[in-house]
Amino acid sequence: MLKRIFVALFVCATAVLAAHIEVSDAYVRAVPPNLKNSAAFMEISNTSQEEVFLLRATSPVASTVELHEHVAHQGMMKMRPVEKIAIAPHSRTSLQPSGLHVMLIGLNTPLHVGETVTLELHFSNGEEITLKEVPIKSVMMGMHKH
Ligand SMILES: [Cu+2]
After folding, report:
1. Separation of alpha carbons 120 and 98, rounded Å
2. Could you tell me the distance, in angstroms and rounded to a whole number, from the CA of residue 103 to the centre of ligand 1?
């Protein structure tokens, strides 16, 4: 009996959390084998009434994953970590080269064009999205040093 109640509660909780966040057009930058860092880009849309933040990301291909932005510093574009990335209500946020991105640091595998990587995204509303087959693409723009 108790077990049945737990199951019912779990189903309700899942329904409440149902997908307000949608990720599309995700891809990862291909890098030469000697480079140990790369970045992931994507569109994140928020269909809820409240602002949602991307808080954290992980990937099996990188020892550390950070959220980054590009800022102009003394005439140079530089990357720096941000605590979170906001997606406004009924809006979308673009992660793109020379802008916001998910930084993959300490790659443990080469990233070849045509292969895929797995990315896990954790949002402030409790949603966790696993992107299982993010394609690796060649991206020339926005190659900046830290
Ligand atoms: Cu970066």
Report:
1. 22
2. 5
